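Running log. JK asked me to keep both predictions on one page so they can be read side by side. First protein, sequence followed by its tokens:
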Amino acid sequence: MLNLKKTKIMTTGTLNEFILDGTEIEITSYHTFLGSIITRDGYDNKEINTRLSIGRMAMTKLEKIMKDWNVKKATKIKIAETIIFPTVTYGSESWTVRKRERKKIDVFELWTWRRLLRVPWTEKRTNFSVLEDVKPKRSLEATILRLKLRYFGHVMRAKRSLERDIMLGKVEGHGKQGKPRLRWLDSIKEATGLRLEDLKEAVQDRKKWRTLVEEKTRNRVRTNVK
């Protein structure tokens, strides 16, 4: 039996009121499903902002360890990479990261490293010098891209897959006027510099695809480091 009082609906269209069996159903603009936020407009900025806030809270809770001089720097870095960053990257395989969100992710990463190294805001230290001290393999944003590329390769290698059909599917009709919005698949093509047909061929060789993913993510430039 469906509890209508606890039921909410979300639609991509315009809907001011929805009544079922005489009960008005609440219309929501976003919904949390399996820990990820799905919004009415399809953008991921709300989900990314939420994940970054969760990452900041995780860092704050571990502040006692990060301020402990008896804990080695290498240990603190490992804690950040295995505990703090995964709370941010959860579900990031489905994100379409725009320039604005990419900058926020880069800012959060440098904030984490500065807190870890106990760099006060009064110390005029460049982001480049902080990264030279930490020496991470890749940026947090590049880690997210790496997860997306690996997920793309996994799905594209499947012969019969609903995920693959959805990933490659297109909706007929005309879009709104103005600059077209960045789609998830567009971000994959932009990051690799390959066309869709070339991507389909590249993912079939697992070893070459892993090499390509490592190459594209390790050389990824941060937006706040010159």
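And the second, directly underneath as requested:
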Amino acid sequence: MTVSIRGRLRRSAGTIRPAPIRGVAGRALARGCNDGLVDEAAMPGRTRIPQIIAHRGSSKDLPEHTLKAYLRAIDEGAEALECDVRLTADSHLVCAHDRNVNRTSNGKGPVSTLELATLEGLDFGSWKLAHGGEDEMPDADHERDKLLTLSRLIEVVLTCGREVGLVIETKHPTRYAGQVERQLAKVLTEFGLQGAYVPGRPHVTLMSFSQLAIARMRQLCPQVPLVYLMKNSVPLRFRDGSLPKGARIAGLNREIVRRWPKSVQRQHDRGNQVYVFTVDEEADIDLCLELGVDAIISNRPAFVRDRLCVRD
């Protein structure tokens, strides 16, 4: 089997690219950025090629979870877009990390108590300076600075001109509990994305820090891959590389990987994949490559892409 790695990285920023490399075996390809072909069988000891997932879009430079942040990430070659979803008071799933809108908009209050029409009237973009050293706010781009619904984000990836995945995190605890996962399954079904991966269509992955949410998603969308997220340390019961039933991907915070790098191999020994978040610095990218993780979740997708080539 031969793979043009540089070609893969180039095509991911264009309009046409092959289907993403999926699965533990599929990602165990030799990493390289030369213009030739790399023989997989000839280099069994080389590191994997991690998938590049844009964390809330290209959110290092642009306001998180906004249309312009996601469009930038697609232009920069991200292979998948990560988003957090919350339910509004009128049962719409919107892309928002925080419980409240205070930090990321000119409004106030919990997402769960506000209706979509109210949220869409807020400015979610100009809170973030265009350039760190400037005192003035940039001009608002109202369409691209609006709060995104999950449905709108799905429409973006369906029409962006190449195959881009979605990695969707449900946030808990929340007053709506399991209604979040039920509404998520409903939205995915409306777009025909609730089943197994189909080449040419967005590859969807669901994730949560909540084991209960993982169990719900396993029942609602049994064919969609599940990521169990772990932040500060690996829970004792999962330190042998196991995961909650139905999850086959471990989502490890970069601090876990720094302190307990053997956690990656334990997961791989069990046949699981490993996604690492949030990876924005060279040292962490290099560590992920050395450990052979399956995906890097980053606020800086272009930076990660360039680092993959530099390391070759």
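Observation for JK regarding the second prediction: The longest helix spans residues 179-190.
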